[in-house]
Amino acid sequence: MNLNKKSLVDFIKLCQRVLHVSRKPGREEFLNVAKITGLGVIIIGAIGFIISIGAQLLSGI
């Protein structure tokens, strides 16, 4: 039980360290991340759509 308590304390200290170092992104950085994330979602959706259309075409043959 002592090992679990030590692990938990170490985890909490690590979380505090990360929160202390982290910062709120600026407007430009946020917009860049949002654009890249949106582009990734669109690309993955397009790939899924193409695979779906291909599967439907192949099942009809």
UniProtKB/TrEMBL annotation:
It comes from the Archaea. Gene3D superfamilies: Preprotein translocase SecE subunit. It is found in: Cell membrane; Endomembrane system. GO terms for molecular function: protein transmembrane transporter activity. Its main location: membrane. The chain crosses the membrane at residues 36-58. GO terms for cellular component: endomembrane system; plasma membrane. InterPro entries: Prot_translocase_SecE_dom_sf (IPR023391), Translocase_Sec61-g (IPR008158), Translocase_SecE/Sec61-g (IPR001901). SUPFAM superfamilies: Preprotein translocase SecE subunit (SSF103456). Keywords: Cell membrane, Membrane, Protein transport, Translocation, Transmembrane, Transmembrane helix, Transport. One of its GO terms (biological process) is intracellular protein transmembrane transport. It holds the Pfam family SecE. It is a single-pass membrane protein. Component of the Sec protein translocase complex. Heterotrimer consisting of SecY (alpha), SecG (beta) and SecE (gamma) subunits. The heterotrimers can form oligomers, although 1 heterotrimer is thought to be able to translocate proteins. Interacts with the ribosome. May interact with SecDF, and other proteins may be involved. Essential subunit of the Sec protein translocation channel SecYEG. Clamps together the 2 halves of SecY. May contact the channel plug during translocation. Belongs to the SecE/SEC61-gamma family. This is Protein translocase subunit SecE. The gene is secE.
